[in-house]
Design a protein that fits this description.
The strands form 10 sheets. The protein has a 7-stranded mixed β-sheet. Strands 2-3-4-5-9 form a 5-stranded mixed β-sheet, with no helix packed on it. It has a 5-stranded mixed β-sheet with strand order 15-16-17-18-22, with no helix packed on it. A hairpin with a 2-residue loop joins strand 25 (316-321) and strand 26. The radius of gyration is 27 Å and the shape is globular. The protein is an alpha+beta fold and 711 residues long. Helix content is 25%, strand content 28%. The chain contains 17 helices and 40 strands.
Length: 711
């Protein structure tokens, strides 16, 4: 796993603060999933960081000691908050030192009373003492709440602002803490010019509110006065950012912005404490080297630092990053450095941001939060529930005959004229894998051999009755070492001597249609030298660098190509020559891409000269077996960026250079060259005015590792 961060220049490297902590505390930090906001308590003694995917809040007891030379940071202890009310927590802020407020993107805004980190039990389940409804059609007071900032207006009374991420406004609220905690919702405070507000900061004198806009790569700064309302225009616009995320004011009036989609921390300076007009960064500080940035760039809007906060002495900057959960920096030394920005690189990063937003229509933000929009949202949710109900009913109808066939059929599941089929399963799916096997056996064509690879000895020795009945009809069950998702194919390739038949791989959590194997065989017979699959993605490359996995698009044609990327969940058929070539590479995948068989199978296909073809013009997805998605590799590989790290490890510079040349020869350049004479106006969406250009440290799953879509 990638843990080490290399710094670009001496000043930035020297500004990095190594914190003291016990091994137990460091292990806890390493377990934190996708990080977003990070906040220090007003007394500088507690630090809060959210785990977006695991629905937890981590609290740390921290000591910051300032000296004439450099601050010293010690993390003393920790506690972990779990709650049924935590659902995709994104933003966090302290209300005094003993309460925190958490914004849940998929739920409510919750207020928790906390104890000092280290008090037993260290991990506890809490109920919020107050909340703001984020769900429902007409009852919701906030919608997709993201970041939050607060300030004290009286004893035990705080005002806070919440970024409502997908609905383009900031709401204002007041809370009174005490025996009878209550919240007053003041409604929409800021709306003019906001697009997907993702971060919010408040100046020390409470005179300015800064809000990040990742859609256009801007920070809007509003004057915080009694006249501020949703029609008020921003006083200043800060540009020169790709995707701004965390934003903080320093005590001397600067604004620091974490650029989530580049290697830089942006610094802006006001004139005499007033913010007005359009401003470019006063300096850009390159915090990440290329390897770290591109390893974490699993999406066009990711890869850089996400959350930032500053201690109350204005000496320590705290950062979060997907590969470096907590980073501490000497802010004084950091602000004395400046980095040369690669204008062309920033233009391409901005172009990729815009391309991503334009190609993901499901992420297009709603323009206004009107009554009509609320009703429409409620109707859409009802339609989704009805669609889910019908899908579940159809799935039950598919499962019933498969269960009956398994219970009563004595028909062989094999056909000597078919290919070999191989799949693996894990203990938590053992009781339901027979559905996948029965669906394949019920197809119009049958395999000549079905190999089920099991890594758990107890499951191998005592398989469920469903698998015992399948063994009588031809299923072969083998015990093998755990190779994660590679278990579905590698034991067969490694053990089989001849490899003179094509190999079909399948997943254990899918119901395959009757024509499935017939269509795979037809694809192979039509072009025996290619690898055929039902589902593929199109790799995107620029300047011999793979663009983020999250920005790849589904394959949209049947033409064999080296630019197609296998996604094996829907089934793949491999020719014998490829299997022989694959065996020559051994199990090097365990060091390169242990949780992604798709990466290894694709890169070896390219190196061996085997093209990949999708069987249809559109990618195919089949019914998922219920109760098999409790553990999924999709969460780690796609949502937490595991695929991006493994892609960078697996594809060599030679591979990427050859792919780049192949792409230029077949498709031309995907990203056109930029005009370097326009350093501050690279590209905007829809022809509008120009703008400038986790997870814990990922730990790969091994024994009985999770698997799922794109796994």
């Amino acid at each position: 796993m990638i843990q080490k961060i290399w710094w670009w220049n001496t000043k930035v490297r020297d500004a990095r603060l190594a914190y003291d902590a016990s091994s137990e505390v460091r292990d806890v930090i390493a377990r934190i999933g996708r990080t977003e906001d990070v906040k220090l308590s007003p007394d500088n003694r507690r630090l809060a960081i959210v785990d977006y995917f695991n629905n937890k809040v981590f609290l740390f007891s921290i000591r910051i000691e300032n000296s004439a030379t450099s601050p010293k940071v010690t993390i003393l202890d920790y506690s972990i908050i779990s709650s049924a009310s935590l659902c995709a927590p994104h933003g966090v802020a302290f209300l005094g030192n003993d309460h925190i407020i958490v914004c849940n993107r998929a739920g409510d805004v919750c207020v928790f009373k906390i104890s000092m980190p280290g008090e037993l039990p260290r991990e506890r389940n809490l109920e919020p003492i107050a909340s703001i409804n984020g769900r429902g059609v007409l009852r919701a007071k906030v919608k997709t709440p993201g970041s939050v900032v607060c300030y004290e207006i009286a004893e035990n009374c705080y005002r806070f602002f919440i970024c409502n991420n997908h609905l383009n406004f900031v709401t204002s609220h007041i809370i009174w803490l005490g025996n009878n905690t209550k919240i007053r919702n003041e409604g929409i405070l800021i709306e003019n010019r906001l697009k997907t507000p993702d971060g919010v900061g408040l100046s020390g004198d409470k005179a300015w509110i800064a809000i990040s806009n990742p859609v256009d790569g801007e920070i809007q700064i509003y004057r915080h006065t009694l006249d501020l309302n949703k029609k008020t225009a921003p006083a200043a616009i800060l540009r020169g950012i790709v995707c701004p995320h965390g934003v903080r004011f320093t005590s001397d009036g600067k604004v620091l912005v974490a650029d989530a989609a580049s290697q830089y921390l942006r610094v802006y300076e006001s004139k005499d404490g007033n913010w007005n007009g359009v401003q470019e960064p006063a300096r850009s500080i390159r915090l990440l080297d290329d390897e770290t940035f591109y390893s974490g760039r699993y999406d066009s809007r990711e890869g850089g630092v996400k959350g930032i906060d500053i201690d109350n002495s204005n000496r320590v900057l705290i950062t979060t990053h997907c590969l470096d959960v907590l980073g501490f920096h000497d802010l004084t030394k950091l602000l004395s450095s400046d980095s040369n920005v690669n204008v062309k690189e920033m233009a391409e990063l901005c172009h990729e941001r815009d391309w991503s937003l334009n190609h993901k229509t499901n992420e297009t933000p709603n323009p206004r939060w009107t009554l009509r929009a609320r009703v429409r949202d409620g109707l859409v949710r009802l339609q989704d529930k009805w669609r889910d109900y019908k899908r579940a009913a159809r799935t039950r109808l598919q499962l019933c005959p498969l269960y009956l066939r398994n219970r009563w059929s004595r028909e062989s599941i094999l056909d000597p004229s078919g290919p070999v089929l191989s799949l693996t399963t894990h203990p938590y799916r053992l009781e339901r894998v027979f559905y996948a096997v029965e669906s394949i056996a019920h197809g119009r064509r049958k395999p000549s051999q079905i190999n089920l690879w099991i890594t758990d000895e107890e499951s191998y020795l005592h398989p469920p009755a469903t698998l015992q009945r399948l063994k009588l009809r031809g299923l072969e069950i083998h015990l093998t070492e755990d190779l994660g998702p590679h278990t579905k194919y590698y034991p067969y390739v490694n053990r089989e001597k001849k490899l003179d038949l094509p190999l079909v791989t399948a997943d254990d959590d899918v119901i395959y249609p009757r024509e499935w194997l017939q269509e795979l065989i037809a694809g192979y017979e039509g072009n025996p030298s290619a690898i055929h699959c039902f589902r593929a993605h199109r790799m995107r490359i620029t300047n011999t660098r793979l663009l983020p996995y999250g920005s790849w698009t589904p394959c949209a044609n049947k033409h064999p190509s080296h630019l197609n990327f296998i996604t094996g969940v829907s089934g793949v058929i491999y020719p014998p020559d490829y299997l022989k070539y694959l065996r020559q590479h051994g199990n090097a995948f365990m060091q390169r891409c242990p949780t992604s068989d798709d990466i290894w199978l694709t890169v070896t296909a390219f190196r061996g000269g085997f093209k990949i073809a999708q069987l249809k013009d559109n990618s195919a997805g089949f019914t998922t077996i219920p109760k098999t998605q409790l553990k999924r590799l999709f969460d780690f590989n796609v949502m937490l960026g595991g695929n991006q790290i493994q892609l960078m490890r697996t594809f060599s510079e030679v591979d990427l250079s050859a792919l780049w040349n192949h792409q230029q020869a077949t498709e031309g350049r995907l990203i056109p060259e930029r005009d370097e004479s326009l350093p501050h106006e690279p590209m905007r969406r829809n022809g509008s005015t120009p703008v400038s250009p986790r997870t814990p440290t990922p730990q790969f799953v091994s024994a009985h590792g999770a698997k799922g879509r794109d796994g």
